[in-house]
Amino acid sequence: MFVELTDWIAASELRSWVIHMLSNFSFLPPVIQSIHIVSMCVIVGSVGFLSLRLVGIAVPTQSVSEMLQRLSPWFLCALPVSGLSGMVFVVARPARYFFNPVVGVKTVLFVIGVVLAVFIYLWDRSRNGFWDQKGTNVVVIRLIGYFSIVVWLGVILSGRWIAYVDYLFWPGAA
């Protein structure tokens, strides 16, 4: 499946255009990469504060519902920016990303993290402040918070390792 997808992208006009843009405008690759990293920082920062609040470390004076209200717009705006900026590099070099096992790890962790964040938000909305209610199982809430922190740390670390796997495991491939 990945072979066919890689071949399809490699033969596409979109890839030709992306490579032309990245090659002819030398400022473009670092700008797009910076946009990607900043959008990931916004995503991880907003979910990170929420997770730290669930664990009981960050901003104990603010309710989880208030925090969700304040941070979810940042999270939701940064998601498409992160996706589009990351896809530029995937389109430019599909084989590098589709056959790199670290990309798979990052993608799986990213999806888990996004689904968990959306679950936390929707559960709070449907249960009118569920995370702040008396009688809610504090142990389960803290476990969700710790799990979220571990997932997003995995996203960050795997994101940084994507570039280095080429050099470590496939010498000459980079």
Give structural attributes.
0% strand, 7 helices, 174 residues, mainly alpha, elongated
How would you characterize this protein structure?
The protein is mostly helical. It has one domain. Helices cover 81% and strands 0% of the residues. The protein contains 7 helices and no strands. The protein has helices at residues 2-10, 13-24, 28-55, 64-92, 94-98, 101-126, 138-169. Helix 3 packs antiparallel against helix 4. The model has no long low-confidence stretch (mean pLDDT 88).
Mean pLDDT: 88
Fraction in beta strands: under 5%
Using only CA atoms, what is the Rg? 19 Å
Please give the domain count.
Answer: 1
**Annotation, overall tally of beta strands:** 0
The string of secondary-structure elements, in order, is: HHHHHHH
Which stretches of 5+ consecutive residues score pLDDT under 50? none
Biggest beta-sheet profile: none
Helix content: over 70%
Q: Which structural class do the helices and strands define?
A: mainly alpha
Shape: elongated
**Distance between the first and last residues' Cα:** 23 Å
Instruction: Give me the number of helical elements.
Output: 7
